[in-house]
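New to this. Please check this record:
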Amino acid sequence: MAHNHSHDDHHHGHSHAPTSFGRSFLIAASLNSVFIVAEIIYGIKANSLALLADAGHNFSDVIGLLLAWGAWWLSKRAPTPYYTYGLRSTSIMAALINAVMLLVAIGGIAWEALQRFSAYEAVAGDIVMWVAGLGILINGFTAWMFSKGQEDLNIRAAFLHLASDAVISVGVVIAGFIMARTGWLWLDPTVSLAISAVIIWGTWGLLRDSVNLALHAVPTGVEFAKVKDYLAGLPNVKEVHDLHIWGMSTTEVALSAHLLIPDQHPGDEFLEKLTETLHDDYGIEHATIQIEIGNGKHRCALAPDDKV
């Protein structure tokens, strides 16, 4: 017998992008998109790789905002006979594509920055300073919009991304100010490489996590051994096998398992308590449990654990 439990059945504060933040996502993504265009235009005009690199970083955060927003919206789409889990996994695909594209783009910026160390080019420091100053205002304001709701992981991630953008823009302002007054042109490629390193550090984690989710690895924050120990310790459970834990999306975790309980089925109350505990204590929002009586005549074809 199987029992399904979805996030919609119980509400325990695990919502990842509540409706009230829809407007904040829209404003933040729109303002940062306009600012990215400005950074590209004035980065080319000022001949500043620092501004272009910062534009790449802001682009990554806009994509991150859209992914968080899109993941929430797509999670509401009803399953179909063809897409039986709905479209939850599209957030994993988008994260993977985004990570690859960003690494390629930053690789080009870093290569150009290295070339400039051997032949410095004039940079309009004042333009760099004023454009980056605008970035401080935009990213500071949009970060403030997400300052409430830190208990939600997606909201917290959006806040940290935008706040870090504001800090990086402060660094670009300082570099522009120094270049305008000293003529130290080496600062532009140096800041470009520093920003590129920050983007690569963040993007590498995104790439790693999205690849792992695409391969149905156990999501970060869920401990497989502890979940198995919990299931094995339930009353009258003699064996746990065919246990799988994977990400249905970048925010939802699913589980399926077979429990061997000899002699009799434990009933719906047992299953309800089990799935509630998996949700509340282990962050697993969609659990499917199969109960097996195990009378010795019909051994499960998926036992032991090395069977898949």
About this structure: The domain at 16-214 is CATH 1.20.1510.10 (Alpha-lytic protease prodomain-like). The chain is about 60% helix and 10% strand. Confidence is low (pLDDT under 50) at residues 1-19. The chain has two domains: 16-214, 224-292.
